[in-house]
Amino acid sequence: ANIVKTRSPKNAYPNAISSNRFINTALSGLAVNDSNRYELPGFQIGLADFSSSLYTTYTGDTIPVEYFQDTTGRIPPEFNVIRFRIPPGKKIRLFQQPFEDWKYHHGEFFTVGAWVFSDAENAAQWIYTSNPGGTNRTVGSEFPYISGKWNYVGGVFQNYQDNSVFLVYLTLFNDPALNSDTVDILVAAPVFYWGDQIPFDQAGYVPSTGGLFSGPVSQSVISVDVNAPESVDSTNTTRLYLPVMGNIFKLRSSTPRTIQSINVTAGGSANNDAAELFPGGTVITLLNESPGKIRIQNSPYISLLNGEDWYAVLPGGYLTLVNDPVAVNKWYEIGRGQVQVNYGAMDIDFSDPAFQDQGNQFNLAVPPLVNVVNLVGTRGSGIIRYISQV
């Protein structure tokens, strides 16, 4: 489908052709890592006391952070909502990490914004730290906040010409002077734009073919532990569930795993509360970060070229699939490959059979995994007319 951008003061969501600089506005891929710390691709989560400016890496068992189902209908379904449960006297910050784009926009204004919902007063504010003239300076956005409703919290700041410090983040507060209990703060669709306007973008479909894209097309890249609870069916280990807001998935596993279906069902039959179906016609690419551990098997739900399983034994293997526009749980292979990340170098020895083509004495047979051959220190003699000619 093609995408068109419209403008309305009641909508503020980035679409496929906006210039939003946050790479994970959908807030996809929230997980707890092996060190019991929350991870959110593209962002860093920090925790501090209310009156402190010293943040620590946020730990999973300190303050619950979890996905939340919006029942107001205000947030479009393609954007996840995250709930932060913050006790009195604490605050959390959320900022994109890494973010180097500011180094190329000195002197320009920028706009940040996010949807926030809470019953607490003064629950959220954007904070910006810079150092114009070599002096550190911290400012914050206003609190245009109505409790019990979705509020758009945002502000316009300047990236000063001589800045060497740039840090902008969304801060979520539980002010002990205003609240004595733990508060829930919901966050959705944080954005960053160069310019002095809060964008009001709404995605929609072009009614005919021929739509054009301008500028870069960004896709979500998500790291997935295929054995994590949100990725598995508790009764069927051949099922894999991926977050539906991603297109590129870096798969990892500590144990061997054979997969025969991807997001094959949803609801109770999935035995997984996080399971959803991908929209029809979705293209995904799987990157294998655990060589020799993950096998995608040809099956009634995954149709692989020539019926050949995908089993990457070296780093850099990838598989691209597209699902059926009607039977969305059926996937078809588009292609696969191997990005060579292990570069090897060898001296040539014409007496070594590894370099010899028994059918053609003029064809230099370079062994697999060798990317560099040394012709200066060649041993033996011979004439090279071809290199690894098949």
Tell me what you see in this structure.
This protein has 390 residues and is mainly β. The chain folds into three domains: 180 residues, Sandwich (Jelly Rolls), CATH 2.60.120; 118 residues, no CATH class; 44 residues, no CATH class. Helix content is 0%, strand content 41%. It contains no helices and 31 strands. The strands form nine sheets. Strands 5-4-8-13-10-11 form a six-stranded antiparallel beta sheet, with no helix packed on it. A six-stranded mixed beta sheet has the order 16-19-22-26-27-24, with no helix packed on it. Strands 6-7-14-9-12 form a five-stranded antiparallel beta sheet, with no helix packed on it. The radius of gyration is 26 Å and the shape is globular. It starts with a strand and ends with a strand. The relative contact order is 0.12. The N terminus is likely disordered.
Output the CATH homologous superfamily of the largest domain: Galactose-binding domain-like
Uncertain stretches of 5 or more adjacent residues: 1-10, 201-208
Shape: globular
Distance between the termini: 42 Å
Radius of gyration (Å): 26 Å
CATH topology of the largest domain: Jelly Rolls
Number of discrete helical segments: 0
Overall average residue pLDDT = 81
